[in-house]
Amino acid sequence: MWLQNNSVDGSSVSSASNNRNAWNSFTGGGGSGGGVGGWGGGGGRMRGYKASSPTGTDRTADSSMMSGRSFGGPGRAGRATPSLSNYNNITTSRSRVKVSMRVRPPFKDEIEAEGGKFYMTMEVPERTKEADLGIVVLGHPRSNKRREFMFDHCFEPSTSQEVVFDVIARPIVDDVLRGMNGTVFAYGQTGTGKTYTMGILQTIKSANSKDAGVVPRALQQIFSHRAENALTMEVTMSFIQIYCETIQDLLAPAIDYRGENETAGNLQIREAPGKGFYVKGLTEYKITSYSEAEGLINLGLENRAMAPTLMNVTSSRSHTVLTVKVVFVGPGVKRSGKLLLVDLAGSERIRRTTSSGVRLSEARSINASLSALGNVIAALAVDNKHVPFRDSKLTRLLQDSLGGSASTALIATVGPAPVNESESLSTLMFASRCMHVKSQPVFNEEIDYMDMCAKLQVQLASADQTYLKKMSVESEKYETIIHKLAAELKNARAGEGLRSSSFGGGGGEAEAAAKRRGGRRSSFSTSAAVDTIGIVRSIGKGGGFGEENHDGVLGGLNLSYKMLCQCADESSTAVAKFYKWVGIQMEELKAKEKREEAGEGIRSVEAESMNKNDTLGAGLKKSLGPHLQPLTKKESRSRVEARFEGIELVDMEPTLMEGNHPELSEFENVEALMSYCEKLLACIRSNGEKLELGLWQTTEWFLNVKEELVSVNVERRGREEEVVNWSFVLKYLLSTNSKLRRKLAGRGEGVGGGGGRGVFAGGGDPNALNTRTKMAVMEDLEDEAVAKIQAGFRKMAVGDDAVKMRGGGGEGEGGAGDSLVGTPQIIAGAAQTPRTGGGPMSPSSARKIIPDTAVASALIERVKNMTQEDIRNLPPGSQTKVLKLRTELGLKELPIEAAQPSFTITPKVENRGRGKKEKEKKIKKKKKKKKKRREEEDEGDEEEESSDEDYSFVK
Ligand SMILES: Nc1ncnc2c1ncn2[C@@H]1O[C@H](COP(=O)(O)OP(=O)(O)OP(=O)(O)O)[C@@H](O)[C@H]1O
């Protein structure tokens, strides 16, 4: 859209209107928000920035005024996109001077003079070679002439200072802070806003104010920059003006301490190799803050040559160059960036300025230098070999910036009035040429490696303490881990030692260990290895073997690595040992079974005993034969097979690491070490699993085998116990059988001795007998022994057998007593007091041994109730026994004369005094009876003998 003058945006042109004092109503052009025609072209490009004052009202009015015009039109939407063919040779802005155009808001007098008809439109093409390119179309409202220019940016009049800075200057300052040279210069007709754009029209105060231009904002950006670590930033500043081809130091007093300062008013440009052109004698101020810079610039602005011209009451009559050098210094590094902020004097047609005298010569000088600048640009634009930098002081000073090694941006300013058309065309053509000036910024960085090294060493030394402290903490951490590893390794070794000893020890400890584990799966400790991997990983994350790694850490790592290797090796050894042991055990067990199968072992003892050609042996054989049938071969084999059933040791080969472990220093990098450690860990895990599996299997197997063994042993012991029990029975029988006693007398061994030799040799726990066996034994014992004892007591009670027992006492000593010691339980609770002496048992002892309380009670009753007469009638030995028993029973002895018989044993009394024949007859009869009874008992007759007719208790 066209600019119009029928509305007002006081804020955007306030300074202009105030200065000119004539304009009070002006709209500062189309808004960026519209983006349709007019200045909105720039606004379209600027989408996202805050536009100052565009309104729809402005555009409506503007479009009505534009109707009928041959160029322009109501807006971009209604017009064809300008041809871009002319701009195809424009290279990307990254490798050339960046050019933008800014249109000053019209003054009031311009609006009045032109009637709101202006000559320029801006557009952003639909598609451009570069997305940020903008097009300005220049034409005259009253002619068909039309020129199109394409720039990097086209700023409408309402574009804020902030936007211009951000788009144009901020990237240049960024480059300077990175160590490149950068230049921002404003070029344009006088009075079009160069000084305003650069922000040095008046004294600068705050970079944050709305009107603050490039200079204050750039300084603020520099001082808010934070230098990288280890680099210090130094900023120096100089400020000159080129006035009528003289270079003046705006920051040096014109009068020095000697009275005058000649050099400050006319500085010379010199050239030095590696330094390029420089201003000799220029004062450079080191500044550390924005406020310092502000003070200096304001001082310089006071010194700046300004004079009102017809076109600009605040016209700058000189080119001003503010140079800000930013140097970053670090260990061995010097990086420098130079920022040139150039506010060129305004180009002008001398006739329009109506200058004369000094003003005229100023204008000529300005035009001459700008002309030289134009020539330089023209030469650069077409890549001329000769670039006339020396033609003016300005071009010489800008050589660094335009010569291609700096990052350069040009802001071309134009006025909006048609009256400025030719100057604007000239400016746009100059700017357009600049679009072709190549620029390839370079970094200004000097690196002194020696110096860097020395300084780093100093830094390192100073940082060493902190570093060491940090490393000692790290070290402690690793030490803790290493100690833990060592402890675990020790435990693992101890565990292995335990297993090793049990490996050789025959399984007892292995079983015990399995029991202690309570069925828990045993495991080879892999946590140590895992921790080591953790250390390696953490080292790896920390940068591997770089300088930053402390020796201590590497030492710790080395130790951990060694331990990991050791773990892997030992795990392999442990597996090998384990399986070897299992193999041996299995072989041994098989061999043992085979021996047993062949008839060796304990059965041979039994067989030996039974085969003895003596009464005892014969008796044993007769008594125990049925119990001691040897196992058949088939039975033995099935037992062996059962014991080895279920054991499948799948993989007996340990996992091994091939070859010797490399040294830590042999690894190329952390990754290689990590990879090897992972392999070690895999080896340890694999071996651990094999051990676990093996232990698990063998534990199960042993438990099975043990159960089998126990059942066999129980059976075997059962047989042993039966031997014992029967032996006891036989012993007792011996004690009552003089014939047997006589046979054994003088041998020095009784049945008890036999027991000591073989029967009790196992020392087994009779409780381990199963109930069935126990009961059977008990029943047999009771049936056999109790019956005999009862019979003996009965005889004793009648008196005659008591004599026999007493009489035989001397013969059987040492026979029975000892064997009772090992078998008290068999006669449950009876043998409270083991007998150590020999001879026939006393009634009291017999009572203790014999569980038949009925018999004992009868006996006791009998003794208690005996009268003196009864006792007197007893044989002398029996009298003593009875009296002793009575004493034990706590009975008061009656005087024998006074005693009344309580019962009468008639047959004995009656038979007393009978002849020898009768007596023998009786004995024969008894023997016959006894024999008969024995035969019955041998056949398992369980009948009670209480109905023995021979003996009767008479009350
Ligand atoms: N974008 C703008 N917005 C508002 N006012 C502006 C703008 N540009 C310039 N002006 C005003 O226009 C007047 C002239 O501006 P300035 O002095 O910056 O022009 P110049 O190009 O530097 O002129 P010279 O070359 O003569 O010094 C100043 O009063 C300034 O405030």
UniProtKB/TrEMBL annotation:
The UniProt entry's GO biological process terms, in alphabetical order, are:
microtubule-based movement
Biased region (Acidic residues) positions are 936-955
Task: Report residue spans for region: Disordered.
Answer: 25-88, 498-525, 830-849, 900-955
UniProt cross-references to CDD domains, sorted A to Z: KISc (cd00106)
Q: Where is the composition biased (Gly residues)?
A: 27-46
* GO MF annotations, alphabetized: ATP binding; microtubule binding; microtubule motor activity
Q: Where is the composition biased (Basic residues)?
A: 922-933
- Annotated GO CC locations: microtubule
Q: Note the superkingdom of the native organism.
A: Eukaryota
**Biased composition, Basic and acidic residues: where in the chain?**
909-921
Sorted keywords for this record are:
ATP-binding, Coiled coil, Microtubule, Motor protein, Nucleotide-binding
Q: Domain named Kinesin motor: which ranges?
A: 96-437
For ATP, which residues are the binding ones?
A: G188, Q189, T190, G191, T192, G193, K194, T195
**According to the UniProt entry, which residue ranges have a biased composition of type Polar residues?**
52-67
The record ties this protein, via InterPro entries, to: Kinesin-like_fam, Kinesin_motor_CS, Kinesin_motor_dom, Kinesin_motor_dom_sf, P-loop_NTPase
- Family of this protein: Belongs to the TRAFAC class myosin-kinesin ATPase superfamily. Kinesin family.
Q: What is this protein called?
A: Kinesin-like protein
What species is this protein from?
Triparma columacea
Organism classification: Eukaryota, Sar, Stramenopiles, Ochrophyta, Bolidophyceae
